Amino acid sequence: MKVSVELVSVRLLCEKLEELSTCPDGVLLNSTQRADVCALLKCAQKLLSAGLFSPHLLWQEYWTRQPILEVVYHFHTHNILTLSFLLERDAAMSSWISDQLQSLCVSMTTMTTPDDQQIHQHILSRLLDSVSEKQSDQSSATGVWVQVYDATAFDVCVSEDMLQRFFTHTLIRVLTHRPAFKVSDAVALQSEWTFAKTPQLLTALFCKICLVFSVESVLCQLQQVLETHEVNWRHVLSCLSNLLIYHPQTQSCLTDLLSKCLRSAFDTYDVERMITSFLLARQASLEGPAVFPSYSDWFKLSFGGASGYHGNSKKSTVFLLKFLSDLVPFEPPQYLKVHVMHPPYIRSKHRSLLQEYISLTKTRLADLKVSLEETGIFEVVNGSAGVLHCPAQQDVEKAVTLFTTTSRIPATVIEASIFRRPYFLSRFLPALLSPRVLPVKADARMNFIEALRKADKIPVLLYSSYIESCQRESCRQQQGVCESVEGEEDRLMILQEHFLLLRKMMCDGASDGDVSAQLSKISLSLRSMYSDEETGSDVICLNLQSPDPTHAAIVNIILQNFCMCLLEASKVNPVNRQGEWASVFLKVLLGHRRLISPLIHRLWDLLHKQGISLSWAHVLGLAALLVELHHCRHMYPQVQVMNSTLSLSEHLSDALLCSTRSHMAFCLRFCLAVLSYGLCKANSLSEELQNFIPARLYKKVLFLMARLIPETRAPIKEEHECDLKTDVSELTERLKDSAIALWSQTQIRDLQKLPQYQLFFSEWLTAELCVRRSQDALTDTERQEYEHWVCEQYYLPMPVCEGGGGGDVTRICADIITAVLDQHSLSQTSESSSEHTDTCLPDLLSLLQVLLYQVTVTVDEGHFLWDLLEDRCTVTSDLGSIGHELEYQQIVGNVSRVLVLVPAVLLLPVRTDAIGRKSLDCHRLMKHINDVQRRSCDPAALLSLKLTTQFLKAVVCVSVSCDDPAVAVNWCLLEFSMECPLMLLSAQHWWMRLSAVLRCQWRRLTACDVLPEQLQMLDNCHNWSRWVSVSAGISAPAWLKAACLHRFLKRSEMEKIRQETDKQILNFLFVFSVIELISEQLHGRGSDCWRRVRDKSIFLVTHLLEDSDWLLLFDQSRSDHSLCHFTCRVLSPQMLRLMPLAFYSIITALESEVLHRMLRSSGFLYTAAVNYRELHKLFLNSDKHVHVSQHQVLLEGRQVLMNIISLSSADSLTLGQRRQLQSDYEQMDSEISAALGISSRDIHFT
């Protein structure tokens, strides 16, 4: 039989090895054996190189004998039989090696000889070299080595002290293995040494080693090693990341360690400790806010204030700045930017030192071609000095909002386009012109872009590129094709795979540390898709009308997988035993600030628009997400929408609608899920419930519970409380029963005791008015019963400090009136007012009337109704502005709607004088008419029929409470006649429709058929004005008779005016004619109507030429004459301001003969000159009431005034009047001023 040379050499080698390697423990050789074995293996290497030796036959032969671990190790080191080869060829090899290595480790705890120690060091070094390789280069053999460090395998073999010493030695060896990296290398490269980028086997090695120690012990050993050894910075920082990910308590321990280290560094000015502190802090911040604050936050906290470590002396300040300056050449740009944006606090006398460092840093950033244009053009809302994250995007949102409000390009944007052009072109415009599908109807963003384009603020090429990109985006969506940038789909697939692994871990009940490790890898995947800046934002501006389309696919993946992870975790454990995975998930997510804006938009869209269609799994997931958001609300920026700034959780709570039955059902489902999940989390963490439940969401719960579930309206006694089921998925079975069971929990109900969680009556009213009656979950009867219960049984007895009425019905009524007025304003200003017409307003108005009748039985000395209405009608802005005037008219209109609904008796209180006589107190009513209603009368000088009827009914009704009702009515109407003529003017105008109502009411209240004298006077004036002979006398004010005549006098009967000898009546007739003339000019009903009214005015003024009192109507100084007194109490300020236009509309149409006669009237020239001056101001200020077609009046008026000046006598003006007019016209019209001067010289010559 022929035997091969390979087999012979293998057998000889095995026999010789068996002779040389006999050892008692079967693991290690002694020094003599080790030398002989190594010499023998060198011979085998030569045979192998000569082709006379077979490794495969060697293992087959040696495995049948009793293999020794060290011999196998020498096979590996001499490259005869590698461990990888052995593990791949023989499955039993892995188990054998693990057992042998654990035996080796046990024996190492008692090693005393240098050779044995050297073997341990050598084995560990080879292991560390292997685990530090890239993931793709790591062999299965290395994994076997790592599994050896399982502490549980040593418990029965060695003592705890021995185990601690062994792993301490191992940890030190790991941290100091091959210290090849310099500090400068660590500063520049540590971003590549995060947990997610650490080789998996090195991570596993750290986990096994650190498991033996507490976090404090590991950090203490870490500090000692850093102070006494040259370290491998990669291993040190990776070890720290491992601690942070797997041990939540590491953050507080590390914070204490950094504080001590920095304090010691500044005490001894130790640069080494400074380096250690900065490297550890930066490494921790790289792992995200889930485990440690951002570097900017840590730097600001440590050095941003006067109490910082460096603030005690100049030497400390110089030490810090010198240290930071030395780091500049090696630091990544994100840290340099933090130091510039958030510089350390330096006292004013040392500011020059800081400026030197800032200058050096900016130079370095310029060399790196990194822009410092990170500050936005708008100030931070909360006044913080912090730098906004992604300021360009927030600047765009703010600019679009301002443009929508003012219809003008904000001045700040114009200034930025000039003085901050690099930022404007490189940041602001790209953020504004991000491609999207353009809407069919131009939205605010499109209008803003168009305005900038017309102002030549957008380069032509950039605008063309934007339009083309938008068209491509539209085509892609129409074709259903998503053209991603190169590699985007691959990155999304990788992200989805990471999430699938996370879901599997949830299903398998993985530990918090393993989940955190996986989340760290997810964070790395997110960071690979875009870059995040280190500087954080204080406020995130949102524009809900233009959702953020960026990162939509990523956000959908995140939200979907969060919901699925929650379901998988709930299958294994209830919420209160699921650990902190959800919180860590959210904190990791919030570490990517660029995702927050698209995340908010997506969540808002889901809750606000798609809530009804969400499955129960999505509802549970989103509810849990909202709870976690609220729990860590202090970790992320607030959200600014329009002018309000809220936390993210409170803002999302506002997305829930309660307007229809379907909206209410979803909102209740979602809120119950939030309450249930939040209660479980609060109990599991032993924290207060308010840390998990947003206040605005809880208020929606208070609104819906009582509204939809009558059983929750009655107080729940403690002995009737139900046990809450912790499995939130059971809420799907019976929503109502689940709601009652949940509401029975004391913890949930006790939230109402906190002020921020109390639903005030005013807030309840706002919510109730948002309900659409046609789609309400309650029937009309149920809604009325519910609203009566809320007002009379719930809020009325509730203390004022808790949002109730404190037993005061007037307070409840005042809140309802305020809500009604707000609702009217909202329906008028809303772009879509249809949604405000189908509200519960009729029900609340009916309830208001019921409550107000309760008020009528008491004497209201406080005038609560007038106090409330006058407060709403207070003129606080310039009514010359058309926007402010329209807003004021809307307010007055809404107030008028309320006035006609309230019981009339509330409008006029009864006063009692010193001797006990009772009379009507009409002071507040007159004040309201003069100050409020007069400003918005339409037609002019006339109240509406509803208001007039309501006010007169109040006078008649309340008069019966006085000693003599007829006398009370007469005295009241006499006061109106003197101080508030607008009231009687309106009564006279509507008398034909009023008289029957008032007669019937008076008869019913007093059993008397004869009206009081002043009411009878209105009836007499009405009849008098229709007589054939107008000269028949009646007892009535001249202005009242003139008003009657003006209304009923036909054009054919104008000649009858010649018979009227009472000049007062003629003057007031002229007043009403001028009022009608101005009204025709304002409404523009046609030139024929306007000429007819003007001719009537000319006819009247022609018969008043002998009496100059008519000129007082146009007296701009508002003298005390009765005519001026009357017009000031009847006409609005706008009508009075247009008197000059009426004056010249009449004067320019007069015949020359009449004009010459007017010149003889005292004060005519002065009145004409003053009115032309005011007319010129009207046109100069482009008054909204002056039409372009009426500019002809100004031109003709100037000619007439020049003619009047030339024809007037020298004594037509006093010297003071002439000087005043010359001064006024000097800048306005020099020719008129010169004409007045010529007359002045004539006077002087005379």
Automatic annotation (TrEMBL):
Q: For the Fanconi anaemia group A protein C-terminal domain, which residue ranges apply? A: 1043-1192
Tell me one Pfam family matched here. FANCA_arcN
Single biological process term from Gene Ontology:
interstrand cross-link repair
The record's annotation in InterPro entries points to:
FANCA (IPR003516), FANCA_arcN (IPR055387), FANCA_helical (IPR055386), Fanconi_A_C (IPR055277), Fanconi_A_N (IPR031729)
Q: Where is the Fanconi anaemia group A protein N-terminal domain?
A: 118-371
Where in this chain does the record put each Fanconi anaemia group A protein helical domain? 390-470
- The Fanconi anaemia group A protein arcN subdomain domain covers 491-713
Q: What is this protein called?
A: Fanconi anemia group A protein
